[in-house]
Amino acid sequence: MRVLLVEDDRMIGEAVRQALRDASYGVDWVADGEAALTSLACEEYEMVLLDLGLPRSDGMAVLRAIRAGGNRVPVLLVTARDATEDLVAGLDEGADDYVVKPFQLSELLARMRAVTRRQGPSVGPALSNGVLELDPATHEASAHGRQVRLTGREFALLHALLVRPGAILSRADLERRIYGWNEEVESNAVEFLIHALRKKLGSDAIRNVRGVGWMVARPA
């Protein structure tokens, strides 16, 4: 799952980014509203963590622009504004939930999971190629009658493949779904994750196309 973090406080941003990485999220961090809108125009995210008090276009303006453009990405407000009217306004503008500073990182992660569960069909229906099935709401996958829970990075990799069954994705394609900007890519990370997924779902779950990349089979 790739997350856009929009936060201008360096200390908070560093702490949240590290917590997200520790939880196996891919995270991109920007510090102002205009950079957030540019990122959203260039990249696809599964969630936005949005501060309201931002330079160069505040968070409420960013939220309005996201929804006005038809982007239904889940948005979780992370704000020091605890006045009821501010929080109600954010929800009315299209935010899915909020957490008020100061907060525990465990609470933030729990609210992210809750937002993901509530999205239901908005997160995307279960993906399947007839053999593999992946539920974005629960991060569970199944194959050959076996159902397993995936880690964050296992889910991100398998999701990327099942969105386009039959298409070959290169190492760079898959790394982009797993890691955020400026995040050090671990050596052989893709191979390690594919090995783990094959152990959970069967050796035929993901096919290697030598010298090109990896794929899952098209539906029969």
Structure notes:
The chain is an alpha/beta fold. The chain is 41% helix and 20% strand. The chain contains eight helices and eleven strands. The chain has helices at 10-22, 33-42, 59-68, 84-92, 105-119, 152-163, 171-178, 189-201, and strands at 2-6, 26-30, 47-50, 75-79, 97-100, 127-128, 132-135, 140-143, 146-149, 207-209, 213-215. The strands form three sheets. It has a five-stranded parallel β-sheet, sandwiched between helices. It has a four-stranded antiparallel β-sheet with strand order 6-7-8-9, with helices on one face. Strands 10-11 form a two-stranded antiparallel ribbon. Strand 6 and strand 7 form a beta hairpin. The two termini are 28 Å apart.
DSSP summary: helix tally: 8
Kindly name the structural category.
Answer: alpha/beta
Give the helix level as a range of percent. Answer: 40-55%
First-residue to last-residue Cα separation: 28 Å
Q: Sheet bearing the most strands, described?
A: 5 strands, parallel
Mean pLDDT: 89
Radius of gyration: 18 Å
Specify the overall morphology: elongated
Uncertain segments are none
Question: What letter string, H or E per element, gives the SSE order?
Answer: EHEHEHEHEHEEEEHHHEE
Specify the oligomeric state.
single chain
Strand order of the largest sheet: 2-1-3-4-5
**Share of β-strand residues:** 15-25%
Number of strands: 11
